[in-house]
Amino acid sequence: MKAMNRRKLFTVCATIAVASLAITAIPAQAAEVGVSSTEIKLGMTLPMTGTASPGYNKIPAAVKAYFDYVNANGGINGRKLTLVVKDDQYVPTLAVAKTNELILKDKVMALLAPLGTANNKAVAAVVNPGARKIPVLFVNTGFSGFADKKKYPTTFSILPSYIMEAKIMAEYIKDNFAGKKLGLLYQDDDFGDDALAGFKQAGLNFDIKVAYASGSQGDKVSPGGWITKLQASGAEVVILFGVSSATAAALGTAAVMKYAPQWILGSVGGDATTIKASGVPAGVLYNAVGASFAPATTDTADEYVKLFQEIYLKANPTETFDNNVMVGMNTAFVTAQAIKAAGKNPTRATLIAAIEKSGKSFASAALVPLNFSTTSHVGYNGYWFGKYSPTGDLKPAGGVYTVYTTDSGTGAVVKSTYKRPAMPAKGLPN
Amino acid sequence: MFQFINTILIGITAGAIYSLMAISIVLVWRSTRVINFAQAGMALLSTYIGYEAMVHFNSFWIALPVAMIGGAAVSAFIELVFMRLLVKRSSTGPIAAVAPIIATLGLLGLIKGVISTVWGGADVRLVGPVTNVGYSIGDKTLAFSPLKLLTLVTVVVLMLLLTVLFQRSSIGLSLRASAYSPEIARLSGVKVDFIRTLGWSLAGTSGAVAGMFQTINGNGAFSPESIEFSLLLITGFIAAVIGGLESLVGAVVGGLVLGLVISFVLMYVSGSLFFIAPFVILLIVLIIKPQGIVGTKVARRA
Amino acid sequence: MHKLKSSRNLGFFVVFGFILFLVGNRVDELRVYQGATIAVYVVAISSIILLTGYSGQVSLGHGALLAIGAYSAAVARDNFHAPVVLTFVIAVLAAAIGGALLGVAAARLSGPYLAGTTLALAIGLPSLANQFPIFGGEQGIFFDVGVPPASLGEDFTQYKWFFWIGALAALVSTWLVANILRSRYGRNWRAGRSNETAASLSGINVAGSKILAFTISAGIAGLAGALLSMTIGVVSPSAFPLALSFSLLTGAVLSGVSTLSGVMIGAVTLVAIPEIADVVATRLGVSETLTTNLPGLMVSSLLILTVLFVPNGPIEQHRTRHARKAAKEKN
Questions:
Q1: Of A264, A162, A183, A286, which is closest to residue A230 (Cα–Cα)?
Q2: Are A213 and C138 in contact (CB under 8 A)?
Q3: B56 band by pLDDT with thresholds 50, 70 and 90
Q4: Number of CB pairs < 8 Å for A and B?
Q5: pTM to 2 decimals?
Q6: Residue among B121, B125, B272 whose CB faces A279 most closely
Q7: DSSP bridge partners of A388
Q8: Looking at this predicted complex, what is its ipTM?
Q9: Which end of chain A has a smaller Cβ tally under 10 Å, C or N?
Q10: CATH code for the domain defined by A39-160+297-381
Q11: Do A21 and C23 count as a contact with CB atoms less than 8 A apart?
Q12: In its keyword annotation, does this UniProt entry include Membrane (chain A) (predicted)?
């Protein structure tokens, strides 16, 4: 009797298994995944909650604000742009799971600006958009490795690489702080390794280098330790080459410990809104050096800043227009042009081909050129440096943008002669 | 030598906070014979309540009592609604012995989920009433600040209050009686149910203070995923076990021992061992002196 | 008699495997991926059922044992280029050794002490990865079992490959556990669970039997860890949060901690919860934060509700009610 019962139970279990697996039938294939007659669907993973989320969690609203603006003006060849956002909490394993959902469940046409070096590497290794021929437009990381077209055939970078940033930063330090004692705080992973490679390439030596562990654990427990080490070394100029949360923690702790060297903030962590939101007084940020490739967000004389600010604040009246928003909207703007260039009935393949063919001539808000070609998936390649105002806004020295460009290899750092073309009419893709 | 002194100072302050957490665990254990793994979650919730008070009144001195009352209320509510039902319902079957433990773990998940939903996952901040910049001796800065002094004073005051309550009043006596022998206590006129709820409330209060001070002694930022609260979760339990689970004095001794050991390991061995060090201490204590440093000789079987 | 029963079971597992094979060919890639995840959960939950339900030792930190398996498999693969099959064997052995050590300590403890110890381990162990460079810190290390063999054809996707490996591992390990539980060892565990004194009086080495349970359970957990990291491709501390141990425990309680045959219920529920939460969140149009937290809230609520109302799992509950009814009718 008991054995019978058990077998019955097994049968129940088997039925559950079969039923749960067979709920959905295979849907009919459209012309291209994620492209219908009325809509083009893109997917994004990034930290919307958790320690690393401040600042970054404003990006989806920024991208959506621009997409809605395009949609209100007729969309791209009559199709609306939509964005599906998934929260990965800056955790690689979650990024893999969420990217799977985007591809298998939401069936997006392409991935847009997925954030984080480790996350993108994990996704590339497991989900492998390259083998699935799914475009990864404009990863939100400056890790130089993603420029490897063989390894990541469908991935496009847009941010200047961390190597480029470090090389240009070294040039700036040689010009402005020669002979001072130098300190560096960096993230102990590929992000930091890239920076170290760039500084080494530029021949910059540090009196003290402090590494911190990436992820949610490191930056909460030990900022006291970082500052103690930097302070003990007597460093007069300190580069903070980390994420926003770590940068904010370092600045806040240094303020408490009365340590005030000349700060130089990397582009990743130099987000004033996040730093101020985590309780660091704006005064601490005052006179720190920062880098950007986009125009200053307070520069409302700039036609892009003016338009983006208008669009963003109309959609999000209670938010602040900051650099994360600016860069997010710019990425959305470049994406819209790429989709338009991909033809009347865009496919994944034509989208990639379009960026390779004409990406170089896409309009963008940045003060440095885009460098896409059939041989290169590298976007921007330069930075300008400025100082933070008493209110915490990054402004170019003397009001003039001095832009430097370089590459991720052994190329020299040169003053850029790039002149940004005028914005297309109404800031819509033409 | 200077670093050595600083390590001791850091360890004592941290240990004082762990002691409070251990006291919470001990109080719940003594009143209902359950190890409450949700205690750190309740401390986190209390800290958020304190944070709300801080936002409204902009004063730590209002926020702290509000957090304490909030902690007591949350704790009492859980005991009244949840634990009573649990004790009544799951007293038979193969997992009767472990059901309460699993349930408190579920409670921890639930509390964290509710907090994340209400307050979001991003950091919020709590600022202490006095500075955390250390006192100076000559040109050196001690790892001991007005804030750390305040922490120690608060813990000592709370300890004294609890001790007085337990030794001098009939409430303390009833709590002891209901813990050791609920049936006999009930027969001799003790309101066992009320006393249990009271034990939980006191635990919630103590946990709230631990949460508030743990937060302002760090960089002030906290979130549902804060590492500080994972740390409180295990240090509270481990300190209570070191102290023998039954005694308040034991909990304090356990907390201080743990605080000092962690502090020394972090300073002299490796900065990333803050979870492993307490675990190793727990194993050593359980294997060498299973009744705890202060505890009486009772086997670790519950 | 005994032999006959076990071979009859073997037949069942083979048939079930064949059904899975047929289903796996007919559903889309998302379901195949979820099927692979269900397989991982089946292995992990059966490991908890063996330990907690049958030998009566509670482990709140099974995530730590999964981590041991995952890391050892990944290190073997990444640093020493071990063949895939060998990496799974290594995962089982490494976790079993860890489990044996833990079991020695655990045999002296019970109830809350063991629970707290395993909980501390689950929180603490993954952070050790930051201590040794070989584990790749927070970023972790990759665990790549490779692409499916070319002989399976062009259309054979990576996830179907994961599903095949996972389902096979789940079938084999569940069959093994089912037979161990019916063997002498299983009876000893149950005897020790219900009354330790009586068990030791009747000649059972209770401590030894408990350590053995911990070792076997840990070995299976190690296999689950390796399978888990196969499906997510990367092993990092963040892959083994306390929430994982929570979920697995919930899966075990839902399955009925003391009924192995319910293991599918827990595994399917765990995979279904995020789906259901997603549907609910979209239907109700709830806020962003609630959408993110809904799966976690559902897992915790289910855990609490199950412990309160069906503490022994739905199958055991059904059986008891059935038996009671039958007894009544007899009267």
A1: A183
A2: yes
A3: very high
A4: 51
A5: 0.83
A6: B125
A7: A394
A8: 0.84
A9: N
A10: 3.40.50.2300
A11: yes
A12: no
